[in-house]
Amino acid sequence: MAHHLAIYTGSFDPITLGHLDVLARARGLFDEVILAIGRNPNKEALFTFDERLELARALVAEMQETTPAGARIRVEHYTGLTVDYAKAVGACAIVRGIRNITDLASECQLAITNRQVAAIETVFIVTGENFAYTSSSLIKQIAALGGSLDSLATLVPPRVIEALRRKRGDRTNPLGRLAVDGLVE
């Protein structure tokens, strides 16, 4: 019997409740899912690979503890092309979350390219309606421009809010430098 392994890829910088919603849905479709943290060369990372791994592993452990039914989840990070990583781990599919029609347009182009170039399928999972406008970029923008971190409770887990709070207090981090400059309270 075939083992159906999927990878759910992204920068997860930071990981959101929308990401976790897609991951929970993917658990019902595959035998195993790897939440694979990659690097997006078009975005400057707020959290290091190690910090993102730590956050994701803690949140995945909580998910598997509170909802044991479903596929096993591993959290890993990778560099390079997603399709190369998918082949290396023996994935049968790449999972991508879709929030809205804009996501669908860009993700379709990427899915078709991945299928033609690497013969790997993409499975789209539509996130819950509560997360249709949640994005890591938006979270970072709110945090960087002085928005209330507590107001993010419907978008990110409490662990992420605390991690963002620590970043604001760290003068070596962009969020912390903004706070020192007086732009963030």
Fold topology:
Blueprint: E1 5-10, H1 17-26, E2 32-37, H2 49-66, E3 72-77, H3 82-89, E4 93-98, H4 101-118, E5 121-126, H5 136-144, H6 158-168, H7 174-180
Parallel strand pairs: 1-2, 1-4, 2-3, 4-5
Helix pairs in contact: 6-7
Number of domains: 2
N-to-C order of helices and strands: EHEHEHEHEHHH
Q: Considering the protein shown, what is the CATH homologous superfamily of the largest domain?
A: HUPs
Give the uncertain stretches in residue-range form.
none
Query: What average pLDDT do the residues reach?
Result: 91
Look at the helices and sheets and give the structural class: alpha/beta
CATH topology of the largest domain: Rossmann fold
Number of helices: 7
Supply the CATH architecture of the largest domain. 3-Layer(aba) Sandwich
Strand content: 15-25%
Find the count of extended strands (DSSP E, 2+ residues). Answer: 5
What oligomerization state is this entry in? single chain
CATH class of the largest domain: Alpha Beta
Identify the overall geometry. globular
| Helical amount | 40-55%
Distance between the termini: 57 Å
Strand neighbour order, sheet with most strands: 3-2-1-4-5
- Structural Rg: 17 Å
Largest sheet: 5 strands, parallel
Structure summary:
The chain has 7 helices and 5 strands; from the N terminus they run E-H-E-H-E-H-E-H-E-H-H-H.
Description:
The chain is of the alpha/beta class and 185 residues long. It has two domains: 5-131, HUPs (Rossmann fold, 3-Layer(aba) Sandwich), CATH 3.40.50.620; 136-180, no CATH class. Helix content is 44%, strand content 16%. It has seven helices and five strands; from the N terminus they run E-H-E-H-E-H-E-H-E-H-H-H. The protein has a five-stranded parallel β-sheet with strand order 3-2-1-4-5, sandwiched between helices. Helix 6 crosses helix 7.
